[in-house]
Predict the 3D structure of the following.
Amino acid sequence: MSNINIVPFPDQNSTNHAREKNQDWNDNHHILSDVRHMKASRKEPRIKRWFHNLAQKYNSTDEQYDDERSPERNFHPSGTSNLVQERSLSLQSNDICDECRSLNLDTLIREIQGSNSYFVSAQYTAPWVWEEASEIRATSRLRASVGFRYRRQQNACSLCRALAASRITPETSSSTGETEVKDIGDAILVTRYYPSHLLRVFRESNKVAVCLCLVPLGRDLGVRAYPDQHNSQRALVMLGSFDVPDLFDPQLFSPSFDSNLVMSWLNYCTQNHRLLCRFEPLPVHGVKVIDCTTLQIEDHNVNTPYVSLSYVWGKSKDACGPVETIRGRKSLPQRLSPVIRDSIQVTKTLGYRYLWIDKFCIDQDAAELKHDQIQQMDAIYKNSELTIIGAAGQDESYGLPGVGARGRRHQFVAKLDGATLFWNPIDPHEVISLSHWSTRGWTFQEALLSRRRLVFTEDQVYFQCNTMNCFESNHCALDKLHVKNRSKTIESVRAGIFGNSKHQNPGKLVRDEESLNESFGRYLSNVEDYTSRKLSFDEDSLNAFQGIIRQFSQEKYAINHVWGLAYPSDCKESLDLFVHSLTWMHRTKARRRNLFPSWTWAGWEGKIIYESCSGTKTRFVGGLHDLRFRTTTNKLLALEEMDEDRDHAILVITAKVFSLAPDAYHGSSPHSRRAARRSRPWSIAGRGARLWWSSSDQTDAELAEVFEETSRWQFVFVGRLLLTSFLMVLESCENGRTWRRAGMFVVDADITNFRSHGDQRVSTFEIE
């Protein structure tokens, strides 16, 4: 019989090292609490000793990271790969150089405490200056000019290194289009720290938490570059050694996985979120789970809780060994990838026994059984108590940072007289969205369909249930973020990253209270997010979204679909909303998936968008005279006659056709399609229009010439949303009988009854 010793977990020395790092953090974790409540004159020496001792511990145990601490690297805000290097600054000594002391940061934060919420009407100690907005400078700001001192890096001052690493340059800022800016040195900008997951609540507080950011001066570049840093939480956070709001605390976090914190989130959810996070298990059959104590693969008992894993498979089939059979029972192999080893450890640490992993719980060699299990993956993830998500690294070989051998990036800390400065990690929403895990198609529904998710990033863990979202670097008083009965969060809390319409927040996500438009808009929003991801096989274009489709079919407003295009069943708006589903558009060139029709988003690889997928009361008005589907047996079916049988590949529509005038394109030959859309370079029925093109990367100017071949192209009015009309662009197929979809015109007017411009007629088209 297999036992836990088969799994190559870290040896005892590694485990002891992790425990030592945890003990360091336990000391460190309480520092901010001590700092907030101390009287500076009485407890200052003790606080200094805390930081000095911690610095010595980290400096002695992390020598291997010294080669990654070069202060000369630029800070790149556009991606996470460079952040691995730039944020390698370990906890340093609290000694800082004379130039940094001359910034008078301890005095500054006391003066900020005495100012109003926007820093105005206050006199600040040099070198800090308050500058009002002007014609030259778009916004007011509090700043200190520092010249070129933080580019030299001629000393070992930890604060110098931190400021230098946070510097935004013209090359790394995505907010500026300027290429030539006179270099007159740098400035440190200061702004209040508003946590991204709180809105109104924190802004009403007058407590102190600010961000520092080093930016270049000249032509207001720094001001426009600054949002890149602040919005992503890449700047240094500075706290005063006095009151900080207990609703929100930026905080130091553990160098290793903090199971106690995660269990507190889980317990809060299970005890209070009965409305949104608890439900009767969905029926499943033939499900296997891993017993984390014996490592055997067993049949799942419906009454036994389990954890699931979402991760990216490795490119090599040798990442894990084959399933072993010992005395007639299947067990995990001795060779396991780091993410699977670590997930077993996390499952046990959180008090669970069973874990579901697709690689081992689905027989990969039995095609029919595999298909059967894939069809119920929505229920498997939804029934699990928690889904562990490995969002760090490229695949399963990376592991879960802070759990096994893979460590977390270190958090810089500096202590001044009366102020504490430290790196606050990048917003986990951004880290997760930029991860390789977020690029894969199958992982989308794995996270969305789960009730509770625990995401491991390079820095920390992020938790999101169907009600709230939390992460280690931000401490929140959970009761104050919820309504009185704790069943849901208050409406000012930011929505989680998984599964919500961009116009909603968790406090409103009570499905039975949604309107039809809100439910439909949430579906369209999910499609937008899903299509930004990659699949290894084109045939999975709908398979990897099938669980989400099934979930919507079981909600209050049951959503049906034809090739992924949604419409509500038994509803008078069904046809209009299906036509709305047809109005998807590509931002950039897409690639055809010929296994699917051209009129569905599933028939293309590439991110799509909808003109509007909000939960407003505005209703899409279809403009088609008739819509049917031709089956492989040449039978025409209406929408209400459809089922999920995929043999309805031909869409047959009858609609009004608009022709393009010879001067329909009046743009100035922009260099890109994106620039052309901003200027609305087309005119249809005398109104400005934008063209969203799927079939190629041609510019609008080039397409204007292509459209001169009038017999090849048709522009079909499909419907409108308020004062926006949609014309589907059809290209004639080689057979001369059918058409394929190539793009979409969006016209800034209601052209439903427009008759005064160009040739108009009603025609029928069969679209492949």
User: Anything to note?
Assistant: The CA atoms of residues 1 and 328 lie 10 Å apart. Residues 1-93, 172-180, 196-206, 219-233 have pLDDT under 50 and may be disordered. The chain is about 25% helix and 20% strand. The radius of gyration is 29 Å.
